[in-house]
Design a protein that fits this description.
disordered N terminus, disordered C terminus, 19 helices, transmembrane helix, membrane, cell membrane, MFS, globular, MFS_dom, Growth Hormone, Chain: A, mainly alpha
Length: about 450
C-alpha cells in the first residue's frame, strides 16, 4: 500500500503490520539462538571442533553487526518497507541454503548470506514500529516488540529441542522458509510506506563501517586463539571505527548516529544494551554445553528445561511494560540486571547433580531479570530520538543488541580454545560481571534529565 498517516496506521492494518514485524524479527533472533543449541549436533555432523563450528553463530552475527547501521541509513534514504522486504527475501533464501549445506564451510558461507537479510530486517525494525503505532500507543508497541525479541532469543533452545526430537539439524533452518514467505507476503501489503528522506546514501561510510566491525571482531577472535596478528587486525578495526565516528560528526543524519548519542538517556541505554546482551550471549552458548556435556542431559531435555527462560521473560516484560512511564526504566534495568547477575553466579557454581527443579528455577530467574531490563531499555532508545531520526535510533537499538551478542560469542570461542570443558562455567561467571555492569549503567539513568519526546 502507499503512504502512511502522520500518526501511525489505522486498524486493522496496524495489527497486520505489527504481526509482520513481529514474525520477521522473531525469525532473525530465533535463528541466532537456535544455532547455539544446535552447535553440539553440528560438531558431530561435520566432525569439526567447537572452535570452528561456533562460526555458524559468529558469521551470522558478525555480518548483521557490520551491516546494521548502513541498512538503517539505506532505509531512511530509499524507504523502510523496500529495504525490509528485500532483506526478508534474502533471509529466506539463506535459510534454504543453510538447510542444504554439504559441509561446514558451505554452512558458514550460507550464514553470512542469511545475515545480510537479517541485517536489513533488524536495522529498521524499530523504525517500522514507530511508524506503525500512533504516539499514544507507541510505548505499548515498543514493549511488544522488545518482548518478541527477548522471548525469541530465549525460546530458541526450546524450539531447537522440539525440532531435533523429530528431525535432524537441517530442519532448524528449513522451517524458516514457509514462515518467511508468509511474512513477506504480509509485509508487502501491511507495512507502513514511510516517506524516504531522499538523502544520498553514504557508500564510503557503509564500507568503512563494515570493514571496521569485521576487522575488530575477527581480530579479537584470532588474538584469543593465540595469533598475534589478530590484535593488529583489531587495532586496525578500532582505528577505522574512530575515523568513521570523526567523519560523522559534521553530518546532519550520520550513518553512525553520533547525533543521537549526544542524548544522555540514549547513550546510557545503548551502553547498557551492549553489556546486557554480551552477558546473554555468553549464557545462551554456555548453558547448552554445560547441561549437555558436563551435566549429561540430552539435547531435548536441555531445550525443554530452558523453556522456563522465555516464559519468565514474557511475564517480567509484561509487568515492566504495564508500568512503563510510571516507573523509571533505569530502575527496572538496575533491578533486572542484578537479578540476572545473581542467577548467572548460581549457574557458575551449579553442581552436576542438581535436580531439574533447581535448574528450571535458575533459568526462570535469568528470564525474570532479563525481561525486567529489555523492554524499558529499548523504549528509552526509541522514544529519546526525534521522529525524523527513527531509522538511526532503530539501527542503534539493533547495533547495541548485536554488538553485545557478537562480542559474547567471540569471547566464548576464545574460552573454548583456552579452557576446554571449564569454559561454560567461566563464561557464566564473566556473564555475571557484565550483567552487574549493565545494572550500574541502567541506574545511572536515574539522575538524568527527562527524555526527549
Amino acid at each position: 500500500m502507499g503512504g502512511e498517516p502522520a500518526d501511525g496506521l489505522p486498524a486493522p492494518r496496524r495489527q497486520l503490520s505489527a504481526l509482520a514485524i513481529a514474525v520477521a524479527i522473531a525469525m532473525c533472533v530465533l535463528d541466532a539462538s537456535i544455532a547455539n543449541i544446535a552447535l553440539p549436533a553440528l560438531v558431530s555432523a561435520f566432525d569439526a571442533p567447537p572452535s570452528r563450528m561456533i562460526w555458524a553463530v559468529n558469521a551470522y552475527q558478525l555480518t548483521i553487526l557490520a551491516l546494521l547501521l548502513p541498512m538503517a541509513a539505506l532505509g531512511e534514504s530509499i524507504g523502510f518497507r523496500r529495504v525490509y522486504g528485500a532483506g526478508l527475501a534474502i533471509f529466506v533464501a539463506g535459510a534454504g541454503l543453510c538447510a542444504l549445506a554439504p559441509d561446514a564451510s558451505f554452512l558458514i558461507a550460507a550464514r553470512v548470506f542469511q545475515g545480510i537479510g537479517a541485517a536489513a530486517i533488524m536495522s529498521i525494525n524499530g523504525a517500522l514500529v514507530r511508524h506503525t503505532y500512533p504516539v499514544s500507543m507507541l510505548g505499548r508497541g515498543v514493549g511488544l516488540n522488545a518482548l518478541v525479541v527477548a522471548a525469541s532469543a530465549a525460546a530458541g533452545p526450546a524450539v531447537a529441542a522440539g525440532i531435533l526430537s523429530v528431525a535432524d539439524w537441517r530442519w532448524l533452518f528449513a522451517f524458516n522458509v514457509p514462515i518467511g514467505l508468509g511474512a513477506l507476503a504480509l509485509a508487502v501489503w501491511a507495512l507502513p510506506g514511510a516517506t524516504a528522506s531522499r538523502a544520498r546514501f553514504d557508500w564510503a561510510g557503509a564500507a568503512l563501517n563494515a570493514a571496521a566491525f569485521v576487522l575488530l571482531f575477527l581480530g579479537i577472535d584470532k588474538g584469543l586463539h593465540g595469533h598475534p596478528a589478530g590484535w593488529v587486525m583489531a587495532l586496525s578495526g578500532l582505528t577505522l571505527l574512530a575515523a568513521l565516528v570523526w567523519r560523522a560528526r559534521a553530518h546532519p543524519a550520520p550513518l553512525v548516529p553520533v547525533d543521537l548519542l549526544r542524548i544522555r538517556s540514549m547513550a546510557l541505554a545503548a551502553s547498557a544494551a551492549v553489556t546486557a546482551f554480551m552477558a546473554q550471549a555468553l549464557t545462551m552458548i554456555a548453558l547448552p554445553f554445560l547441561m549437555h556435556v558436563v551435566f549429561g542431559r540430552s539435547l531435548v531435555e536441555t531445550g525443554l528445561m530452558m523453556v522456563a527462560w522465555p516464559v519468565a521473560t514474557g511475564m517480567a516484560a509484561s509487568f515492566s511494560g504495564s508500568l512503563t512511564g510510571r516507573v523509571p526504566a533505569g530502575l527496572f534495568g538496575g533491578v533486572g540486571m542484578t537479578v540476572f547477575a545473581a542467577a548467572l553466579a548460581a549457574w557458575a557454581f551449579m553442581p552436576a547433580s542438581a535436580p531439574p527443579a533447581l535448574l528450571v528455577a535458575a533459568l526462570a530467574s535469568c528470564g525474570i531479570g532479563f525481561g525486567l531490563f529489555q523492554s524499558p531499555n529499548a523504549r528509552d532508545i526509541l522514544m529519546a530520538a526525534p521522529r525524523g531520526r527513527s531509522g538511526g535510533a532503530s539501527g542503534l537499538l539493533a547495533s547495541g543488541r548485536l554488538a553485545g551478542q557478537t562480542a559474547g560469542a567471540v569471547v566464548m570461542g576464545g574460552m573454548f580454545h583456552f579452557a576446554g570443558d571449564n569454559a561454560p562455567r567461566l563464561a557464566l561467571g564473566l556473564a555475571a560481571v557484565f550483567a552487574l555492569l549493565a545494572a550500574a549503567i541502567s541506574l545511572a539513568k536515574l539522575g538524568g534529565a527527562p527524555q526527549r519526546r
